[in-house]
Design brief:
- It is a single chain.
- By secondary structure, the protein is mainly alpha-helical.
- The protein has a single domain (10-120), classed as Alpha-Beta Plaits, CATH 3.30.70.
- The chain is 47% helix and 10% strand.
- The chain has 4 helices and 2 strands; from the N terminus they run H-E-E-H-H-H.
- It has a two-stranded antiparallel sheet.
- Helix 1 crosses helix 2 (55-73).
- The relative contact order is 0.16.
Length: 135
């Protein structure tokens, strides 16, 4: 799940509270959180959803209710998200079978990987073949 783009990253300021909210909502629906990690602008979750519950229904519930609870607890966010839509539209879902350990490892290490990729993407502002700085 990703939150809507904004000037500053709202997830980083309210990270622990959002985690508590998501855990509570999952407990209400008997959904087990196997692994989860909040990034600065999105959340990765590996969950076990009971067969009686449709994935799309659960995601609608989780995003809708968590949005309301976040705005209730963090009133200042109402001004940043005037229409009370904290989360971006859509989400990614995939089923996991025997490779759930790979998914858990991915979730645990994603923040480190993103930081490494950010550093690799930095441009050089000095021409390595000349002595004049680039403009």
């Amino acid at each position: 799940m990703a939150n809507k783009p904004n000037d500053d990253s709202s997830l980083s300021h309210t990270r622990s509270d959002i985690g508590k909210i998501l855990r509570t909502l999952c407990e209400y629906k008997e959904v087990e959180i196997i692994e989860a990690h909040a990034m600065s602008d999105h959340i990765h979750m590996l969950v076990k959803i009971p067969p009686k519950l449709a994935v799309s229904s659960f995601m609608g519930y989780l995003k809708g209710k968590s949005s309301l609870m976040i705005f209730e607890r963090h009133a200042n966010l109402k001004y940043k998200y005037g229409n009370r839509n904290f989360w971006a539209k859509g989400y990614f879902v995939s089923t996991v079978g025997l490779n759930d350990e790979v998914v858990k490892e991915y979730i645990r290490n994603q923040e480190k990987q993103d930081m490494m990729e950010d550093n690799l993407g930095k441009k050089e502002y000095v021409d390595p073949f000349g002595s004049k700085p680039k403009n």
